[in-house]
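Subgroup meeting minutes
Present: P.N., E.W., G.H.
Scribe: E.W.

1. P.N. recapped why we're keeping a running log of single-chain structure predictions: easier to compare across weeks, and new members can see raw inputs and outputs side by side.
2. G.H. added today's entry (475 aa).
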Amino acid sequence: MRHTKMKNAALVITLALVGVRGAIAQAPSNAEIQRILADRLKGFEKSVGIVVGVIEPKGRRIVAYGSMGMNDPRPVNGDTLFEIGSISKVFTSLVLAEMVQRGEVELDDPVAKYVPPGVKVPERNGQITLYDLSTHRSGLPRMPSNFAPKDPMNPYADYPIERMYEFLTNYQLQRDIGAEYEYSNLGAGLLGNALARKAGKDYESLIRERVLVPLRMSSTGISLSPQLKSRLSTAHSSVFRLSPTPHWDIPAFAGAGALRSTANDLLTFLAANLGYIQTPLASSMAAMVKVRRDASENLKIGLGWRIESLKEMEIVWHGGASYGSRTFAGYDPRSRVGVVVLSNYNSGSGIDDIGRHILNPSIPFGDGSIVKPQERTAVNLDPRLLDAYPGRYQFPDNEIFVVRRDGTRFFLKKPTEPEFEIFPEGDFAKGNDDFFSKTADALYTFDFDKDVPDRASQLTGNWGFLAPRRGKRIE
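Output recorded in log:
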């Protein structure tokens, strides 16, 4: 169903309990949350930290554990800044909803109206609308194929908006617009740029004017003052051996993930969404969760927000990640509880489980404790096996990896990321054919087809404590 107007959206956030089964769960106590965080960071609390913020009918509270950084022993707290990654998409879509409320744009406006002259937006059985971009049904891929960063540790820094427009002009959609849900950083970045062009200002200025100033979120932004920088936690990645990593610069994709914020500021944002504070954004916030499209069996997508059915309850949430952070923000409109979880490390497993558990303690949380990377030693590969591994491999999430050989060296590459070298480690004569990366805590295993012993048929990548990923050879 297409939506051409949001003028009649509810002016307040619906909090009715009619028709909802089960008692409203109580959020865990501060002591319980503290135990969860201590278990998650066990042995690493002097290097990294997690901050949890809870807002509920009886007030708001902060529970923090750990440090600002490996080389910064200051404890994290509610005013510590973190990269919030894709939670930025919620702010972008809130501006969209607010601009619709003002009559400045319509949800069904083609995004082609808001790109520079000469830029061609791909079409297929219709035009991509602002609504399609916000709900990830534009047909655009997750990332553009011309995304090839020079610095893999700060991958978005050298990708200007002109390259995004170049990709759009030459891209052919692989499915009809609106046909399927496909999460797209490209689409969210394009939406942020389109709204900024319409408003006649840059993305950060638009977010500040329409959201941050009205909500008095003075510790949120992209370009940080010296005072805010002093509160910005160091980013760390366990994939990159829990080493400090650069904060990302995201010029073209700002609407998809460029914002930095604090637990206190994000609790203010959730307070506005839950109706605890009065704001002129209330009707726009309500409209964001009234407009919904299916994503999967238990998941719908509103404007920016994910709306998920979990254990007889519905939560509204979004997560975020960079190489050196994982974040979560969500709320339960029934209990009027909101939760923020911010970490200055990316472990691979994330911290979404902590956020969900706090919203509903009947939802279990996993074992996401940080594991110290194992030291590995490269071995010489039998020359007879050199040609067994090169090829292309497709994973269940449709990601494509390419394995290339250069003499006795092997390289692994995804289309949108820089190539990196992998090294043989195992006893290949006994079928233990493991490869590893020296820059990431990653292990790759090639399983041979027993009927074709000179061909590698599958590839498994194990990032930290993520479940091994298995890909089928397609070439």
